[in-house]
Specification:
nucleotide-binding, alpha/beta, globular, 13 helices, Rossmann fold, 2 domains, 50% helix, tRNA dimethylallyltransferase, 6-stranded parallel beta sheet, Histone, subunit A, 9% strand, magnesium
Length: 306
Amino acid sequence: MPKIYPKIVISVVGPTAIGKTALSIKLAQHFKAKIISADSRQFYKEMSIGTAVPSLEELNAAPHHFIQHKSIDENYNVGDFERDAISKIKELHKDNPIVIMVGGSGLYVKAVTKGLDYFPEVDSNIRENLNLQLEKEGLNTLQEQLNLLDPEAFKTIAVDNPQRVIRALEICIGTGKPYTSFLTNPEKNRDFKTISIGLNAERSVIYDRINQRVDLMIENGLLEEAKALLPKKHLNALNTVGYKELFEYFEGNDSLDFAVSEIKKNTRRFAKRQLTWFRKDDAIKWFDYKTDANAIIQYIASNHQK
């Protein structure tokens, strides 16, 4: 086998339900490496079923980090993750030159591989006014405003997340420039090389896999998990597909069938945004989701030798 660069992070990305976890475990076993999760919702110990946390069998198949290591009551953002993940990667590289990173949270992946972008300070009153607008007029109004000021941001960020929408809007309003215009800052120097592997499939296949996964989540107890979290629904961590729709059901605003259909619809939209985000990165080598792991291992070995 050709020699691999001294320090490598193999980043496995792609839309939700495509099979990233299964591939990352095969890669970890082959390279005798450990896995870092860059899925921002799998960080929370109270959320298991609705975030598709790896099963105990999967967790035992390869060592994982950043899985359910935080509580939903803690404030933990992408900047915190960048700091913690880089520190953990340095630690893991002392024992093995290869670390596997897996996750569909594009901003969190980028934070590790390229560093976070710099945004100028803006008047704090802008955020306060946007929060008031959210309270009075709802999220749809803010989404429409973002689509007008920065259509590219509207297509790529998690527009179902009020905090993300407000963050993008405050930059647009405060600077007079699109939020996305600040996403082109020079990359941070990392002491490792990133090999990015993307898994994909026909859209109909992705959607079928998402629908099946949601049905399985319901079977496995998502309703009970979400109901236990209802008293804390105001927390940002719970503004997540799979939970917020069920909260509406518990409060009598929707039927269960409608809530489940909304989970499927919103997850499909999320997958579409994930692909829009990752397709902007020319460094990602895409494989069909059915590709044998050995072919991907061969690509890693033959294309990134010293």
